[in-house]
Amino acid sequence: MKVVILAGGRGSRLSEETTVRPKPLVEIGDKPILWHIMSIYAHYGFADFIVCAGYKSYQIKEYFANLVLHHSDITVDLGKNTIQYHHSTRPDWKVTVVDTGLDTMTGGRLKRIRPFLTEGEPFLMTYGDGVADVDVAAEVAFHRAHGRKATMCAIAPPGRFGTVELEGEKVAAFVEKPTANRQRINGGFFVLETSVLDLVDGDRTHFEGWPLERLVAEGELAAFRHDGFWQPMDTLRERDHLEELWRTGRAPWKLWA
What we know:
Blueprint: E1 2-7, H1 15-18, E2 27-28, E3 31-32, H2 33-43, E4 48-53, H3 57-65, H4 67-70, E5 73-77, E6 82-86, E7 94-99, H5 106-112, E8 123-127, E9 130-132, H6 136-146, E10 150-155, E11 163-167, E12 170-175, E13 185-186, E14 190-192, H7 210-217, E15 221-226, E16 230-232, H8 236-247
Protein name: Glucose-1-phosphate cytidylyltransferase
Enzyme class: transferase
Organism: Jiella sonneratiae
């Protein structure tokens, strides 16, 4: 199954980083968040990727074109015009990067990459700015079992602010990131049949709008519940939070060895 990653937005809420590079290339540790997302899927054996690029798409193309360079030590023989790679840790991935337009909406980006999909075969889809410890293999099995056109990972988002638990006038405990009220939201990490793309009119279609609403109305959108870790990277604060988790060895989304 192919994995489609939406990576074309401007990332304006993270402008401290995205003025110079596209949001999916903003680094957690010393790797772009896009690499982290792809590593989650590759852990479950899904390593054929289609990246829907847009804003500064050439940087995403250059990153993958030079991935071996990024993940290796090198010896450059200028006289012979050769490069020798050492200690290469390149992943065994196939990556197709498609420029889906600067102002194309999410549904339009999916429509544009349809020629790269296999008709009649489901594909995986997510956003290029969030990580989770989702069991992707279990979600795919769930999708195949229920027989609907689409499966969405439904998550209970963490609370924005920490809370305190009280016992009378005494503080009993601090809760750093409480889950608000168990109401669930779209956490990305979809499994979709190619027929879902028939619901997209064109570049101006938001996938999260009419297409998903139509699937709900037809009873064709199933919810795969995920109660584990999930974190988008929309702001500098969230980027710093992910960076701290990675730096201290507490990154829940690091499922690979």
